[in-house]
Amino acid sequence: MGHRVFGATVFGGVTLLANIAAAEITTAQVWSDIEQQIKDAGYLIAATKTVNGDALTISDLQIAQLIPDTTAQLMFDIGTMTLSAVSPNTVSIEIPQTYPIRVIQDDGSDEDFALDLMQYADDLRITATEAADDIAYSYTANTVGVELVSVQSPEFDPTTDSVSGSIEFKNITATAQGHGDASASRDLSISADLLEIKVAAQSSGSEVFDIDLRAGVSGLTYAEKVSLPIGHSQSDMVAALRAGMTMTSAASSDATAFKVTGTSEDGAFTAVFDAGQSDATSSISGETVYVQGNTNGLVLDLAIPDIPIPISGRMDQVSYAFDIPVSAKDTEQSFGIAMSLTGFGMSDAIWSLFDPNAYLSRDPVSASFEILGRGKLGLDVLDETSFLEDPIYGQDLELSSLTIKNMNIAGVGASVSAEGDFTFDNTDLDTYDGAPRPEGEGKVVLSGLNTLMSSLLDMGIIDSEQMFMARMMLGGFMTPTGEDELTSDFEFTPDGGFYANGQRLR
Predict the structure, then answer these.
(1) How many CB atoms lie within 10 A of CB 181?
(2) In terms of pTM, does the model score above 0.90?
(3) For range 53-78, the mean pLDDT
(4) What is the 3-state secondary structure (H, E, C) of 186-222?
């Protein structure tokens, strides 16, 4: 539940007034739109409205939400908002530079808690400007942040425990523009020079520890387009998606740095994680979910009391893509999954633990695969109760075709690659003991395997008899096709047979 509370508090506090749109440009209409957009986001709102000429004062402004999937409430006590017409097509929106936020769960359980926070800003400016038939909103500030003020919890003893934390955006700019149609649609973009997170916690009670966490993301950008059906709220995402909500987003950052240091009863520890340029895009609807991303230059360094040597790892790039249906249908749907890990390497200190004589190649390891397919989905993925029981093949899931592309693993002096294209007969679940009968062809290529097995023999991990048996087994379905290279061309036939290099194995 903690990640939901954190996400709702931070994202709600920083973007609450950036996600707004309207159709005309008067203070009354701007406020009416702000109020509606807050409700569309799933919040309740209470305020007193006072008109003074062209100015509109909203006093005693409070915004609250029940955090989804929890019994905790999130409350913003903003106080006074002033809307002023500064030109025929521009309205200035002023809110306090600081105001309190409270997150509370009080249902009589052992998990009850209360967090008091303070949102703060420096040189915060919000304006609404006429843009054709819509209104464009601009939000800028030198800094915008949320700081932890106090904690109340059965597990937190203020006489022995202390905790502090903050999250802060530096040089933040946000724009939002809504569109008047049959849905509450809007475009949103946010950029910040730096996002900083700081957390410190100490305890001298039953568990003694001292932890300091620092994280930063530089060159942060985020953009999204949302179309929300009228009458629905993003607080009930499942219902909104089923009603036709769509959302696309794109995010990027120049660099990420994370460091946690501390001491515990076991001793001192340090964890450092750094990454270079990252980007991600997504597209979500009631039909499918598509997510794609890349992260470059990953570095991990750990020093833990229970491990005698530092742990250090590097990776040049991680890339991923998922395109998955989420709604149940009687007709076939496409899906795809792809992943690539390149340039993974470990420190010599780790290598020396199991290969002190450097028998194995220490070149960076890489792995990649791409899987495409079609099938029927009888489960509604948006309904979490669908996963309380194991899915039944033929009723909840049915696979029609599968294509494997670009599957490669290379490391320790050897590599394996594979590809294949298959269809499945779901009327025949007997030939392969409950699985649909496959039909199609594929290929597997092993390179450097003999060299790898010789190295494992020198290391004493396998003996000569085990190496001989492994070579005999591989020889049964693989053919030499080059220097230290073995290939298997395999086929599933319509009669239920399985062939490798022309030899029937089933």
Answers:
(1) 9
(2) no
(3) 91
(4) EEEEEEEEEEEEEEEEEEECCCEEEEEEEEEEEEEEE
Between the alpha carbon of residue 417 and those of residues 293, 347, 353, 483, 492, the distances in Å are: 23, 26, 29, 16, 19
Q: Is the pLDDT of residue 5 over 70?
A: no
- Six-digit token pair at 356? 């002190």
Angstrom distance (rounded) from CA 406 to CA 119: 48
Give every CB contact of residue 91 below 8 A, 6+ residues apart in sequence.
25, 26, 27, 30, 83, 84, 85, 127, 128, 129
SS3 (DSSP) at 70: coil
For helices 464-475 and 449-459, give the axis angle rounded to 10 degrees.
Answer: 160
| 466-491 average pLDDT score | 91
d(CA 403, CA 470): 29
Q: What is the DSSP letter of 40?
A: H
Give residue 20's pLDDT.
Answer: 41
The pLDDT-based confidence of 474 (bands split at 50, 70, 90) is confident
CA–CA distance, 305 with 261 (Å, rounded to integer):
12
Tell me the H-state helices in 106-167.
none
Position 239 scores a pLDDT of 86
Distance CA 448, CA 455 (A): 11
Structure tokens at 114: 């209360």
Closest listed residue to residue 377, CA positions, set 424, 423, 419, 328: 328
Helix (H, G, I), strand (E, B) or coil at 389: coil
Are 216 and 256 spatial neighbours (Cβ–Cβ below 8 Å)?
yes
Say how far apart CA 506 and CA 503 lie, in whole Å: 9
Max Cα-Cα span within the chain: 94
How confident is residue 131, by pLDDT bands cut at 50, 70 and 90? confident
User: Which stretches does DSSP call E strand in 67-160?
Assistant: 73-87, 90-94, 98-105, 113-122, 125-131, 134-152
